[in-house]
User: Fold these one by one.
Assistant:
Number 1:
Amino acid sequence: MHSKSTSCDTPKTLVIASRQSRLALWQAQHVSDALQKLYPEAQIEILGMTTRGDQILDRTLSKVGGKGLFVKELEYALADGRAHLAVHSLKDVPMALPAGFKLAAILERADPRDAFVSPYYESLAALPAGSVVGTSSLRREAMVRARYPHLKVQPLRGNLDTRLQKLDAGEYAAIIVAAAGLIRLDLTERIRAVLEPTESLPAAGQGALGLEICADQAQVEAWLAPLHHSRTAFAVEAERAVSGTLGGSCEVPLAAFAQWDGEILSLAAHLAMPDGSQRVSAQGQASPATMAQASALGRSVAAELVKQGAHEIMQALSSRTPVEVYDAN
Ligand SMILES: NCc1[nH]cc(CCC(=O)O)c1CC(=O)O
């Protein structure tokens, strides 16, 4: 059970639920360090867990599971009181959390960009015709196929270390992964080129971490509040609203990226067919002062995508043969 909160305003113990991949554990440790700094007296523990998504990595994940597969076990630990919070890559968190859970804090975003990794070539543009690029993200696949139709895209599964091993084994000429993951794992030197948002628009939430708790744990929420970074939270709220409005899941090649310039939040989004054949895109700007206003920005950009034919693309996508697109990190 959760230790009953008393009137003390510092925690005695905080247990962080985490998946067991190297990236997930790094992220949990990062949050643990930040909490320890805030609460030097507290005992902070990481509870490593294997999720269903991790267990069936070697097999093809059905369309049914999706992002939820990687967060559910962590939510059971929260609900049981075995852990007070769970750390997630926000990109992997479904738009709507199950009843009884909430995101208590969003941490300041790290590098949101995609990274080009190759032992052989310095950029996508330098790859000879017919080169095989590894990625299991439909968004990245659509980008490569639209911009570099002479390249081949092949699925690339597994956590970051596995993906790098497959690259080094010669299965791919290059791979595209999130810069943030490589930077966190001290693999920055593997990045040959970062892809600017104008070239590869990031996925909603990429590079940001979210702390999930039981919705009724107001005391835990208050303890986590100092870690909340509200400019990041507004940006990712706008991005996630695009995805939420379109009914986006990890099966959808949707990009949504919001960036602050002074008091202006600019949001760009696009939805593409993975073969690069069709694409709708939209932008919007606002000066949100509340999460609701940030979300409204996302909904208006989504509405523009719909006007341009997003539903037709979604329709075409859903009639494709399901492919494995999800990667565990
Ligand atoms: N899709 C899996 C995933 N989820 C979070 C990250 C990286 C870290 C982040 O975006 O915060 C990755 C790896 C990748 O996309 O290459």
Note: The first strand starts at residue 13 and ends at 19.
Number 2:
Amino acid sequence: MKNMSLEEPAVQFNHVTLSYGPEQDVLTQVSMELHARSFTLLTGPSGAGKTSLLKLAYLALRPTMGSISLFGVDTGSLNRAGLARLRRRVGVVFQEFRLLDHLTAYENVALPLRVIGDSEKHYRDDVIELLRWVGLGDRLEARPETLSGGEKQRVAIARAIVGKPDLLIADEPTGNVDPEMSERLLRLFQELNKRLGTTVLIATHDQNMVDNAGGEVLRLADGSVMHQVSKNKGLIL
Ligand SMILES: Nc1ncnc2c1ncn2[C@@H]1O[C@H](COP(=O)(O)OP(=O)(O)OP(=O)(O)O)[C@@H](O)[C@H]1O
């Protein structure tokens, strides 16, 4: 039977306001929707609130006002356990990778599965296959300090998707890599979206990515207003 919950929007913001303190509204009345299996870029000037918006979407922050639903579930109605369960359906990639230095590439990717008590016998082949998919099949035992920025980011992408998330959120994933690697990372995100149907949301200043991604481009302006624009409309980033 078809799982109807997959047909719900992956992310829905309803009049979301986020304040970090009095007179410190970062987002004001933001409403937006990401359809299941969509591919979306989020752009906007520095300080507009992109990272803050992503943190709300991956449940690291709660809105000051308004409501956020993930996969049709209103996050405001959930307790800690419910939020944690929902959070497991979301993978996150950070600009600065956030790998654990004392673990190998293989161990970094396996970590989310270890944490939830999965056995190595069960996940080993999947982790190796994922590292091969990102082009690091020969670096399984490498520690992060011996990897380039692009290689680290590919380990981080593999780690973010090893739990087969329904939604992948990436915050400036190409901020620390060269243009060639940026294109390669974009292709990985696109393949993930097309082959597995993972909903992808990427915040980026990378004009190359905006020009080549396809999909939707959302622009956050003045820290508050969300415009949806199609690609190649001369965005000012
Ligand atoms: N924890 C916090 N406490 C107080 N203010 C914060 C906090 N985090 C972010 N801000 C402020 O909120 C605003 C939006 O920040 P945010 O990092 O979301 O923007 P951004 O669009 O991601 O910027 P950039 O493109 O430079 O990464 C900024 O003015 C920032 O200083």
Note: Residues 20, 26, 44, 46-52 surround adenosine-5'-triphosphate (CB under 6 Å).
Number 3:
Amino acid sequence: MCCLSIECQIFIKKIIMKTLKDMTFFERFEADILCGKKVITIRDESESHYQVGSVVDVSTFETGRYFCQLRILSVEPIAFSSLDEDHAKQENMTLPELKSVIQNIYPGIERLFVITYERLA
Ligand SMILES: CC(=O)Nc1ccn([C@@H]2O[C@H](CO)[C@@H](O)[C@H]2O)c(=O)n1
């Protein structure tokens, strides 16, 4: 039995549902996303819940500033060791750059997910 009021439970559920539909990016990637040079993101398991076909509101990680909406096209598992030039190209980076960025964000994590998206106007 939950001791919170029904209003409180609904409020918490709304926050959770909104959080699951949001995505954040580091500010330095905003320009590449907006001009279509960066068409994937690579995330760990905690961010692998995005539903294919859903539309997510995107904001900056640093300040929470909204900057676009993306439609999720696919969510596929990928091992860190299997990342290749094709992934790097879709990130608008070289492969060593991409691996270094990911190692900084997700140190020691092998099990990752490639999320492909399209920007909505
Ligand atoms: C802010 C936040 O919550 N998390 C992340 C996680 C990842 N990324 C970018 O996705 C690609 C592969 O990981 C690279 O381009 C990353 O820098 C990001 O911008 N923000």
Note: Residues 24-26, 29, 41-43, 61, 91, 101-102, 105 surround N4-Acetylcytidine (CB under 6 Å).
Number 4:
Amino acid sequence: MGVTQEQIRAVLERLALPDGGTLVSRDMLRALRIEGGKVSFVIEAPSPEIAKLMEPLRKAAEAAVLSLEGVEKVSAALTAHAPQQPAPSLKVGGHPKPQAEPLKPAGVKRILAVASGKGGVGKSTVSSNLAVALAKQGRKVGLLDADIYGPSQPRMMGAKGRPASPDGKTIEPLHAHGVTLMSIGFMLEEGKAVVWRGPMLMGALQQMLGQVNWGELDVLIVDLPPGTGDVQLTLCTKAELSGAIVVSTPQDVALLDARKAMDMFSTLKTPVLGLIENMSFFTCPDCGGEHHIFGHGGVAAEAEALGLPLLGALPIDLETRLAGDSGTPVAAGEGPMARAYARIAEGLIGGGMA
Ligand SMILES: Nc1ncnc2c1ncn2[C@@H]1O[C@H](COP(=O)(O)OP(=O)(O)OP(=O)(O)O)[C@@H](O)[C@H]1O
């Protein structure tokens, strides 16, 4: 027989809060769920400030429940309590269940997906920089990191922390570099692998679109996982995507996969707005010569063949990589790469795409 709610409550009763009482006696335990060997629950703090101080307790609570026989995995999320609200039933962390919410947030004018066929071509880098470049031009921009298996936007945008859910229903996004930001990475522990089944994935996506307080946005950029899997399928079929931008390197193998992604969008009737060639060339700092490390002209030729615009061609650039690693996208600065992203943003705005 599996673990019971009573056993979990009993073990949590033994964890004393610094200012007296326990999670159970102080009625801070919410949304306790048991699915096989997996347990999840929400700890509701009296205020966002106190929630921040309760992180050690959250960890201790996870460890205590994990010590119970029959428990394989525990996920505890912290939220802050809003007075006069009913007790939340939303599970902010862990493995969310599919919700019935629509996938188009009310205040969002356009949803643009940034996709790639192959991993590692710079899709997340382009997404964050494009979001920042658009925000610098006065657009209200959101960035949704839907790369469920490898969320990199928290690092690239330099944003940390768990989004609060003061009313237990709405999830408050984070803000960085003028962009409203949500990533599944905010709800996971850094460095931990995610193994989710399809319905869980869908639930996470639906939560991030339907329950995040995106506010009024001109454009919501969605950084998709690479390839043509469940996430892409769900977004294209259920969210009202205005279009997709496909990022590729000029390398043959990347282009081949980019073609597959474009085929998928075409089958799902999502317009591809254009292509961006990333890591187009490398300018040698010593001789000033342009080197086409991943090939030359492939993405431009592909765009021409398909009658699609080439929205930009971005070089291999050390500053871009360092900026991404440091949490301040290169587009936030004033250098040549910031200008290159500004031109792409201008093109999107001019074309009525953002
Ligand atoms: N133009 C560029 N010049 C130099 N480095 C770059 C450039 N574009 C991306 N990178 C670097 O390449 C690495 C992969 O980029 P990124 O994570 O954006 O790719 P991705 O396509 O989103 O990958 P994944 O498939 O893992 O999500 C990162 O370290 C990033 O900083």
Note: Residues 82-102 have pLDDT under 50 and may be disordered.
